[in-house]
Amino acid sequence: MYKNMKVLSCSALVGLLLSVSSVSADEKHAENHAKPADERTALVLKPDERAVVLLEMRQFLSGVQLMTDAFARDDAKALANAARSLGKAAVHEVPPALRAKLPAEFKQLGFSVHNEFDQIAMDAESMGDMKHSMTQLASTLQKCVACHTIYQIQNEPYPALHK
């Protein structure tokens, strides 16, 4: 019994030493790999303007999920419907004040993405080639990734309260 306790004690000691050295290694790793600064271009918008832009992004994401489901079911008609819902039909009137704040490149990316979803819808209906449609979607999503790599959306700071 004493021998078993000695083995257990040694095992516990080794485990403790390993966990301490692991924490130390994790701390050193964290020190050497500090979180990089976010160097994306900030689009500083009023909360309601920011909500408009974020709503459109959520609609894109929901539509892409529907498209992915259509790919999984090999359903070109459902794919076309989902893609069309993200095309020019999804473009809504952007308030002039918001439009003026958005960089031309941001707006160009957005319009090209809407146009590409319309093309995906037309090709899915006319060709029914799901591999072709998947390639088109991958290309379109590269623009989404590029936009998210370039831009961040921030709220305008609240005006200071006068005392």
From TrEMBL:
GO terms for biological process: electron transport chain. The keyword Signal applies. Keywords: Signal. GO terms for molecular function: electron transfer activity; heme binding; iron ion binding. The keyword Transferase does not apply. Residues 1-25 form the signal peptide. This is Cytochrome c.
